[in-house]
Amino acid sequence: MSKFRDLVIGTAIASSLLVTPALAEKLGLGRPALPEEVAAWDHDVRPDGLGLPEGSGDVLTGEEVFSEKCAVCHGEFAEGVDNWPKLAGGIGTLDHDDPLKTVGSYWPHLTTAWDYIHRSMPFGNAQSLTPDEVYAIVAYILYSNDLVDEDFVLTRENLATFELPNAGGFFVDDRDTVELPKFSVEPCMTNCKETVEITMRAAVLDVTPFDATDDAAAPAAEPAPAVAAADPELIAAGKKVFKKCASCHKVGEGAKNGTGPLLNGIVGRATASVKGFKYSKAMADAGAGGLVWTEEALAAYLADPKGYLPKNKMSFAGLKKDEERKAVIAYLATFGG
Amino acid sequence: MSDDIAKGTTRRGFLSATAAAGGALVAAGAAGAATPDPLIMEKQPWATGLGDGVDAVPYGMPIKFESHVVRRNVSWLTADVISSINFTPIHALDGTITPQGCAFERHHSGAIELSKDDYRLMINGLVETPLVFTYADLERFPRVTHTYFCECAANTGMEWAGSQLNGSQFTHGMIHNMEYTGVTLRTLLQEAGVKPEGKWVFVEGSDASSNGRSIPIEKALNDCLIAFKANGEALRKEHGYPVRLVVPGWEGNMWVKWLRRIEVGDAPWEQREETSKYTDTMADGTSRKWTWVMDAKSVITAPSPQVPITHGPGPVVITGLAWSGRGAIKRVDVTVDGGKTWHEARLASPGQPMALTRFYFDHVWDGTEMLLQSRAIDETGYVQPTKAQLREVRGVNSVYHNNCIQTWWVKASGEAENVEIS
After folding, report:
1. What does the pLDDT look like over A115-128, one tens digit per residue?
2. Is there a single domain that holds both residue B279 and residue B344?
3. Does residue B183 share a domain with residue B154?
């Protein structure tokens, strides 16, 4: 501790001379944070459990919550969909080529999973989970990694002491002692080697995005307006709004189902009618019940996806502004089935 | 045609352009022209008509002829574009300052729109007085201006196992260099009063990812900035408007954007971005953590795969960038023969600590193939290692902190390719 104080004082002197104007006294700017304001923002959780709220959750509840709110990207068994992160598996692979890094195989602290899910998930609807839901989801992730049985209950009391397989697998940066002496050597300037051979070429793999496939510069093909009266400005605004949807939904020529169903022809289409897409039970039931995606129905759904159709699996908070909903529907209406 | 050459990504266009330009050069050389140049002989519309008035463009974008100098992303890298990264077109820039409009972006939950009026910054934890600042409050603290590079720890990360991407934009474009204006983090921490047991700060963003990192108090009190201007103007949305953290020389993930909270604590938080990510797995399966400093590194930005030589043999400017998270760049060496012989490059200006340094090597190309490399040396004496040297220590599963020497194979045609050499 005394060492730390010395450092602070030492830096203070250097700073007043070189870096910033000297601040002998506080300026009295800002205002004291109220305790309830700190409580509203300070949600972080440390490995020692500091910051964990009261609560608990079991594996089976976790499976239900996970299926509803997480599986759309992470898969029903936490195995990951497409390029989305895999949360389970990979234990014992860290010294292999292409190790599989998951909560089970790689993460050192379970508190980190709780903290991250609580503050940052679900993607597109962060900070919507209750503490009990987070405990349950984390319990299910442990179960998916074969680290607990299905009757396991995760609580504030047992979370911080739960030891993950790779807890001891990390060491603090040692480049200063391992690499710097090795690399800090006056380098050779002449006659450094006799021959040079090319041992690998990027053209062999050929993964560089070229203009045709990955081009920010080329103008995108504009959709042909299907309705003569459509407002081009509204459609353009809708195209922008659609960026919020585009990570899961595709439209246009050649579009396919992704995390969400293909949206060509969505306006006026029967609900849950895209072939090859696995809908939630809630969405399939709505389709079977005769729901059609009229502009009005879409607007209501987009305003509050979970409120309009409880238990559907679209993990999106919704479009709160009426003009955004109108614009994106106008944009979608330009794509025929 | 000239647009295609500039893009450097249209192989057919490049080849026919070289044939035309190279042919003309071989025939005419520097000696003279066979026929008068119509661009000189004929009156041109821009020399006779009128251009735009001063009210045409209240805030300017680059002229249309530069429309290829843009950020690009690599779609197969990530699951979607909201939580992803793109690349600065370093192959087409010169000097050291990166214009904000083409400086790489990395978001975890997308670039948010947060106004100055809606902005709040909180300091809490082990401080005498937890505080809340508005944007207007921040502007009243004593201000500083410094230039620093910001490099993503994953820059060049796709190249660990072998040459993958053809272009310095893609291999080294997760970097930018800006002149930041703001308040030192030290000033704000002093205002709140750090308690003696405070050894770490936690910094957190306002966006949905609420990206958070732990920073040791020594660094926080040393040179970190609470920045609100870059290159003289407000930060762009994608770089954290209205306020971001600047952590000089350390990995970009710590430069939290839309900074909303600074908490002082007595231990690190071990957040997702400092455990499951931004840790470096060695060949034996153990992993380094807290690898904050960016090692000395350099790359030749041109010629390179996106910037082939189109003029045939003769004078050519070989140029690139060098930087180090441990201080200033002292020297950059360049080789054209794959490292048999090295030459000291010319620095555009003396290296500045933790900022990009531009180097030039003025070469007369004989038209035969070249294996171009650059090698940075910083003020600590650290010499940028080869990929083989790095792999010897770290294996190939590290992902982050790949600062190896890069090789471009320039063929007799002038085209260049990303390669590895013995």
Report:
1. 999 999 999 999 99
2. no
3. yes
